[in-house]
Amino acid sequence: MTHTYDLIVIGCGGFGSSVMFHAAKRGMRVLGLDQFPAAHDRGSSHGDTRIIRQAYFEHPDYVPLLLRAYELWRDLEAKSGRSLMQICGLLEVGPPAGEVVTGVRLAAQLHGLPIENFNAAEIRHRFPGFAVDESFEGVFETTGGYLQVEDCVRTHIELALKHGATHEVAAVRSWTSNGQTATVTTDRAAYEAANLVVTPGAWATSVLGPAAGLPQLKVRRKVLAWSPVTSNVYNETHGGVGFLFELPTGIFYGFPSIDGRTLKFAEHSGGETVAAPLSVDRSLRESDRAPLINFARNHLPHVDPSICRHCVCLYTMTPDGNFIVDRHREFENVHFGVGFSGHGFKFTSAIGEALANLAADGRTDLPLDFLGQRRFG
Q: Which CATH number fits domain 2-45+150-214+320-376: 3.60.21.10, 3.50.50.60, 3.40.50.150, 3.40.50.12780?
């Protein structure tokens, strides 16, 4: 027996869960398929928190998407009665001519966003939890903060179910489309829908296959770490902020101490390329530990440079580090979002809405053209 829907979503992590919610809210009959349960820890959307920010150093064209994302996160909080987004401010530090400081200032200028500028001495005075090289400068985004990542995924799925969606834990074996109807076969059943949205995270290449014409995507293994704090300067309740450092050794970031006992931080740059997401090594290696401890010793003076907790997540990298959100080049009823390159979660509310609108109407008001795969030829 084949089950029929208006929309099938393959992959129900950060993006797919949002697509499910926005499509179901519109009255579409939605099926979400994922090989793991909701808010699992096998992919890219776990580890308690994700940074959210507006003055986007990667590319100023992301800013309109972020402004919509902020609106939708607040709307999701109102609909669910849950606290999902905390605005605590974000300090971004680096050489004045570097990618981060320059990019933040450009995005803020082009879009009229509020930021504060600091030299090294001012950073050390205003933010005593950080040690900063004398040649560095900083920008502070008052609108920056963090999202409760697993709660965001769960909330999107739970509200989608309340609007009539179905969520199945099943491994997708294959899918086909004739441009009018998509058929998806799992290890449990076969399903049909007028539209298909594919948001498979680290499994993008294998799920979409060569017909999609994707560029080469590389999956990177990334370690998130928690270390004990020795002072309350990082505590969220004492004015602790999110942070991001551009250093000669890489880009590192972290969060305020939410529990008052530990601080979460990680390296955004680098990462080992993995061939099989299901078999990634999730242990903490010495090669993982060394750069994190070195960062803590040099720049987090009130953190015990040991690691008391860790987890491993996956970045799915495009060649230029920007997302791919587009329609399948062969099938008008198939859309996808892939290659979020380690900085995508904050956008899930807005891009999920956009993908749902593309499936329902064939269009979206959000400016997504710069994320199309045509840029790769």
A: 3.50.50.60
What is the sign of the dihedral through the CA atoms of 57, 59, 61 and 64?
Answer: negative
pLDDT of residue 1 exceeding 90, the answer is no
**Given the residues 68, 222, 313, 328, the one annotated as active site:** 313
Distance CA 372, CA 315 (A): 19
Could you state, in order of their start, the residue ranges of all structural domains in the chain?
Answer: 2-45+150-214+320-376, 90-142+218-317
pTM metric for this prediction: 0.98
Question: The tokens of 344 are what?
Answer: 């995508």
Q: What is the pLDDT of residue 69?
A: 99
For the question of residue 111 being annotated catalytic, the response is no
4 assigned to active site = no
313 is catalytic: yes
pLDDT tens across 265-287, in order? 999 999 999 999 999 999 999 99
